[in-house]
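Case study 2.
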Amino acid sequence: MPASQNLRKQEARASRRRSIDRWFGRIGFLVTLGTLGVLAILLLNLAASGLTRIDWQFLLSFPSRRPAEAGILSAWVGTILLMMVTASVAVPLGVAAGIYLEEYAPKNKWTDFVEINISNLAGVPSILYGLMALGLFVYQFRFGQSILAGGLALACLVLPIVIVATREALRTIPASIREAAFALGATRWQAVWHHLLPYSTGGIATGVILAMSRAIGESAPLITIGALTFIAFLPPAPILAHAPFISFDWLFSPFTALPIQMFNWVSRPGEEFQSNAAAAGLFLMLITLSMNGAAILLRRHAQRNIKW
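Prediction:
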């Protein structure tokens, strides 16, 4: 009799657990559906307002006081140059810091303090990074209101994200990989370079692209350092047709970006400017979604090529 009662109790607990699992799955499905629905509504709203404005004239024209002639050429060129500076600074520093903290740094109170602060920095409001960049890069280092100052501000903003993504990607690698490399006589750096980095490439690349996706839509740091809201010229070309063939004058050029251009148009009266802002927002949203899609594809490709 006690055995049968115990069996019935176990079956009742198992039934409750299965019921909880089913309800959790349903709730998760509804939350996912609601999130996708909000995103779809946003895209449809932007498309209804600005899709007709996206053409070659809109993409290849400078901003103008006449909404029908206005374009986003200087905005998307400035955005691309900003992302070049941001990626050039944030990616190598973030990956190197993540590797050091995960594979080399001793586990003590100091490293625990550093790890906690890095995690906290990932949630700091972006306006604070703009204030820091204004005081440090614009006034102290005298970079001015330039692409270099804006790119460094965004690099500081996304650097904690890259560090955290690198560490999480390295943590997913089994300890047996490290132990096998050490057993064969490999140094710690050889184990990292030949084994850990190739296996964690998918996770690191995903974190980097997601960090760039956040940086590309930030406007508060750029407004704080003094990015222009109206600019009718392009920065100097980074590649020249004559020696020395490479120029860095564009780093110190004034700039604007897509979020700044959208802010300028939204603040103006008139439905035509609102349509231009919606078109620029749709273009920026498509770029962001493309970067996120590339992150997913890259992660899947890297996972298929991994052989444990």
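Residues 2-50 form the longest helix (49 residues).
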